[in-house]
Amino acid sequence: MMSVRMKFAVAVLAAWMPAAAAAPPVEVTIDAALRAEPISRLVFGGFMEPATTRVWAEMLYDRKFFYEINSKPQPAAPAGGFGRRGPLRRWVPVGPDEFVSMDAKNPYVGEWSPLIRVEPARPHGISQSGIALRAGRAYSGRVVLAGGGNVKVEISLVWGPKPNDRQTVKIEKLGSSFAKYPLKFTANADTADGRFEITGAGEGAFRIGAVSLMPADNISGFKAEMVRLLRELGIGIARWPGGNFVSAYDWRDGIGEHDKRPPRRELAWNGMEPNDMGIDDFMTFCRLLGAEPYIAVNTGLGDAHSAAEEVEYVNGPATSRMGQVRAANGHRAPYGVKIWGIGNEMYGPWQWGHMQITQYPEKHNLFVKAMRKVDPAIKVIASSATPEELSWTYIENRQLGTFPGRETVTDKVPFAFFSKYDWTGALLTHSADYIDYLGEHFYGYPNLAIDAEKQQFVEANDPLCDRVRRMSNKVQMKFEAWEEYLKKMPWLRGKNIKFAFDEWAARNRPVNPASAVPATINPMLTPLTNALVYHEFFRHSDMVALAVHTGGMGTLAIDSYGDPSGFRMEGLVMKVLHDHFAGALPVAVKGSSPQRAIKGTVWVDTPVRPSGSPTYPLDVFAALSADRKKMVISVVNPTESAQDCVFHLTGVQAAGPARLRQLIPPADAAAWTPPPGRSPFGFGPPAKMAETTLPEAPRRMSLPPASLSVYEFEVR
């Protein structure tokens, strides 16, 4: 029987051989003599929000007891917006509620700590369920306790209903002051509904200051397998701690001893932040991944003095005031972080501390002056937004309910350049000396287009080849906006200001917020959308300093126990493009079939000139490897039919066989359904990329429907 790998190789070879086609092949000329600046590895970024994200290995929610503990029903989650955060699990009393109270007089950390009254005949305490456990896996942790009287405490990890389906650590005697007690467990069965219990019996009462449970194989508090896969993915830069979150975040809450860091109400997403992952932990994470750290400072509710102290804590010598604090926390050497974000989306009324553009540039300048005074070598990213971003988010907020209560304005979209809706224009006008990079964000709905007459989203009802271009068209719009700024401010040419696309992602929503999430027309919609966005970043390598995919850290496939099990298709797109194009030299791609315009409104969701290479319907990008010894060609076929193309290579000569890596729709995609409560858009099981070797560099190829193909071969 022929193997799957052999079948794939035979299919590729058959496609490689000249064959009759229903339509003329797309002619593609690659001119290796015309080269651009190298592609920065920092375009392959990942985004983290809030401060403590799912890369952190903590298994217990609210481990420092921000919420009151009782058995009352939880309030319903707020409707509207992107309120995706909130309590996933909770602590509940073991026994009657009246035996559990919250002690605000002598809390260990935060505003209060649980106080448990006990009695000899019946255990009382607290428990948390819904914990995923794996048979044979070791778990470690600690509990901080204090007690009085004759109290004996038991801490149990439970994996089933039977009396023996648990492991218990017993603490026979407590002191009056808080003390830490180590915990070790090994689960004997798989379960998605494990339970963690802290109970006591005897006479008197005991207090619980904090508790922690992690897989024993965690690496400095991070999930070991997730660290391995994210490093393999090629995350070049990690952005932290947000995002909307940063505008109400005090970085000082996240330093020092983990158990003494106070939990805080998380304002951006209506949840709770435990502050377990602070600056020092983030720097450890970046070191584990080999990623460049990017720290955003709070220009919402924050102030310039706090931002300057943050820079000093991170980059100052150990002899400086904040450097001494860092050294006392176990990190004597400065971290030397170069990239700093000055706020997040301060143009949006959804942002904590939002202010008018007539005032914000001065605040931006104050922050940068204070931060550069501490470290003149830092590079700063402005919280900018071109008029198309303000136009698009206005429609989104109003129609899709992403910011309930958004005010109505009489101006129609697209909003004008250099109007009150042009944050990038205002910042360039008043703050150009305090900007290294423009921090532009862009999101999009591939299934929706904005109707200029209706001033709202409508169902696009267009083919896959058009839908996948909605996001890459937004990249093109940013560069067309730059052209507009240069017309008005030609002196910008001497400033060396570049773009930092530090948030971007495709989304999926219905036109009516009350309707169900629409079905994905093709499982390759998001992977190909992302591939085309990367192609646009590559084409503008001279102007794109960095880019951070909002879902970059979330492109791993996660199993029902919360463990990473491989890469989703979006992850494979990022990985294959990183592996082949990070540091590569873009070369010219020419053709005679320009990309066509798609549905939408110019300067809101479509550019003046469509994005992509002149090779419609294909999109082709090519580059020489950093050592100039290999040619790499990435081809996206966004149509739902096979497409032939012919390559003409000039400036170099192909030598030897070619390696092909190809991502196509999975055979079982139609049968797969997402877990309950999860949108199918951009989510899926672990995927694989097919690989084969061709006898020589391709001249004519037949590209499978809805596919990404990456060819690599030596040149001379």
Describe the structure.
By secondary structure, the protein is of the alpha/beta class. The protein folds into 3 domains: 4-36 and 610-715, Golgi alpha-mannosidase II (Immunoglobulin-like); 42-56 and 219-588, TIM Barrel, CATH 3.20.20; 92-215, Galactose-binding domain-like (Jelly Rolls), CATH 2.60.120. Helices cover 20% and strands 30% of the residues. It has a 9-stranded mixed sheet with strand order 29-28-31-26-25-24-1-27-30, sandwiched between helices. Strands 2-11-14-15-16-17-20-21 form an 8-stranded parallel barrel, surrounded by 5 helices. A hairpin with a 4-residue loop joins β18 and β19 (456-459). α4 (304-315) crosses α5 and α4 (304-315) packs parallel to α6 (360-374). It is globular. Mean pLDDT is 92; it is low at 1-21, 79-87 and 676-683.
Blueprint of the fold:
Blueprint: H1 4-16, E1 26-35, E2 45-47, E3 92-94, E4 100-103, E5 113-118, E6 124-133, E7 138-158, E8 166-171, E9 179-186, E10 191-215, H2 224-233, E11 237-240, E12 264-266, E13 271-273, H3 279-289, E14 292-297, H4 304-315, H5 321-328, E15 339-342, H6 360-374, E16 379-383, H7 387-400, H8 423-431, E17 437-444, E18 448-451, E19 456-459, H9 464-467, H10 470-488, E20 498-506, H11 525-539, E21 544-549, E22 556-558, E23 564-567, H12 569-581, E24 585-590, E25 619-624, E26 630-637, E27 643-650, E28 654-663, E29 690-694, E30 700-703, E31 707-715
Helix pairs in contact: 4-5, 4-6, 6-8, 10-11, 11-12
